[in-house]
Amino acid sequence: MKNQLTAVVLILCFSSSIYSQTEENPWLFGLGFNSINAENSESTNYKLPSLSLSRYIFDNFSVGINYSENDVRISNQDLYYYSIDGIIKYTIPGESKILGVDADPYLFAGYGLSNYGESDVSFGSLNTSYGPSFGAGINFQLSKNIALNTGLSYKSLDEKNAYSNLQHVVGIKFNFGKGDSDGDGVPDKKDHCPDLPGLIELNGCPDSDGDGIKDEDDQCPYLPGSISMGGCPDSDGDGVSDPNDPCPNSSGLNGQPCPDSDGDGLTDDLDNCPNEFGPKSNGGCKLPDLDNDGVPNTLDRCPNEPGSEELNGCPSLPESLSSYLNSYSEIFFDFDSFKLNSEQKMNLTNLSELLKKYEHIDLNIDGHASYEGESDYNMLLSEKRSKSVKESLISDGIQDNRLNNRSFGENDPNYANLPISERKKNRRVKISVNKDL
After folding, report:
1. C or N: which end of the chain has fewer Cβ atoms within 10 Å?
2. Where in 142-286 does DSSP place strands (E)?
3. Residues 6+ apart with CB under 8 A from 282
4. Cβ burial, residue 110 (10 Å; 0-12/13-18/19+)
5. pLDDT tens-place string over residues 323-338
6. pLDDT tier at 144 (50, 70, 90 boundaries)?
7. Dist CA 308 CA 295 (whole Å)
8. Please, which residues have CB within 8 angstroms of residue 105's CB and are 6 or more apart in sequence?
9. Cα 51 to chain center, whole Å?
C-alpha cells in the first residue's frame, strides 16, 4: 500500500496540464485506487488500478470506458475481481466550490461485465457476468495542472457466480486534446494569451477596442487609438495622447497641449484663472485691488482709496501741495553757491509737513547751473545744490527713499542766457512729483 501511495504522489506532482473537459480538450484520462463492497464480502481494500477514458461529445455529455481490478473475500474465498464498463457521463453545469476548491460534480450510467474468481477477461468465462451500473463523482480542480477525483457507483448483477457491488474510486484525472484553453481557434502552443479568447491575427490575444493593437500592448485597451499614441486616442490632434494631455479636447499654439484663453502667458492647465488676465507670479489671476483703481494692492500706496497709476494708486495731487509747488517749486541760488538761506529753509520745512501728510507722494529734486564756468564744475555744483535741498528735507523727517535727487549741470537751462537777470535763474533746484517711484 505504501508503494501505491508513493506512485499517486508522483503522478500528482508530474501530471500534465488539466482543464475542464470541453470541445477543445475532449479527452479525459483517470487513474486511481478502488474498493469493492460486494454482497457477502468480508473485507474491503483499496487497490490499483482503476482506469478511465472518456471523450466529450456535446452539452456536458461524454462517453467512455472504465476498468478496475481488485481482490475480494466472499464466503471465505479469496477472489480476483475485474470489471469493464461503457458509460455515458453528464457533468453538472455551473460553478461549484467545496471547502474553497473548484469542483465539477457529475453523474454517469453504463453497462459492462464483471468477473469474480478468474483472471481471464474473455467474454465467455464462466465467472463473467453482465449488468448495468450508475453512479456519481466529483472532480476537484486543485490547480491548473491537477484534479483530484472521487466517485461512487453501484453495479447490479443477478447471474450465477456474480455479486452486485458498490465501488468507490479515488484518484486523479487529466484531459488532453488539441489544447485551445480559451476556445479562440488558436492552439495554446501558438497562443500568446492562452487564457483569454482573442484574434487569430493577433496570435490569440484580445483587442477590446478594435484598434489593431492587442490589449497587453495597448495603453488604452478600451479606447481605440493609434500605434504612435501607444493605442490611445488623441482627441484634439495636438500630438499628445489623451491620458497624457492635460487638455485632451482643446489644443494650444506653438505645440502647446493646452490653449491660453486669457493670453496672460500661462496655458489654461497651469492658470488658476484661465479666463482672467493675470501675472504668472499670482498663478494667472488678477492681483487684489481693494479700491478697484487698477493698481494692485502690492503696488498701491493708497490701497483703500481710489487713485491713479501716475500717483501709485493714490488720489490726484492734493490742492495744498499743488499750490505749494506752483509757488515754491524752484529754489534759486547765488553765483557759485549751493547754500540755502533761512527763507528757503522755512519753505522746505513747510514742504516737509505736506509730505508727512501725503506719504504716497515722492519728489524729484533736480539741480541746475548757469552757463558760466566749466561744464564739469557746473555739473558738480548742480549736484551740491540738489543735495543741499534733499538734506534739508531729510533733516525735517522725510525718508531718503522718497527723494530722488538728480544733477543736470548747465545742460537743461529753463531761462535765457541773456540778459543776466534771466541767466541767474538757471542757478536753481527744481522740485516736482516723482511719478516713477
Report:
1. N
2. 147-155, 165-176
3. none
4. buried
5. 999 999 999 999 999 9
6. low
7. 8
8. 91, 92, 96, 136, 137, 138
9. 54
The residue among 164, 152, 135, 177 whose CA lies nearest residue 34 is: 152
Q: Is residue 155 located within the same domain as residue 226?
A: no
Within this chain, do residues 171 and 63 fall inside the same structural domain, yes or no? yes
Query: Are 24 and 168 part of one and the same domain?
Result: yes
Helix (H, G, I), strand (E, B) or coil at 37: strand
Amino acid at 374: E
Instruction: Look at the chain and report how many structural domains it folds into.
Output: 3
Q: Which three cell numbers stand for residue 159?
A: 447471474
End-to-end Cα separation, the chain, in angstroms: 106
If asked whether residues 100 and 133 sit together in one domain, one would say yes
Q: Which residues of 209-241 are buried (b: 16+ CB within 10 A; e: fewer)?
A: bebebbbeebebbebbbeeebebbbbbbebebb
Query: How crowded is the C-beta side of 106, counted as CA atoms within 13 Å?
Result: 25
Residues spanned by the domain of 208: 182-233
Which of 145-154, 286-295, 359-368, 393-402 is predicted least confidently? Answer: 286-295
* Residue 133, CA distances (Å) to 84, 107, 161, 409 in order: 11, 11, 18, 130
State pLDDT tens for residues 321-376.
889 999 999 999 999 999 999 999 999 999 999 999 888 889 999 999 998 889 99
Torsion, CA 61, CA 98, CA 166, CA 15, rounded to 10: 70
**How far apart (Å, rounded) are the C-alpha atoms in residues 45 and 343?**
137
**162, 27 in Cβ contact below 8 A?**
no
CATH code of residue 343? 3.30.1330.60
Pairing state between β 403-407 and 363-367: parallel
CA 320 from chain centre, in angstroms, equals 66
Closest by CA to 399, choosing from 366, 369, 363, 430, is 363
Chain centroid to CA 315: 54
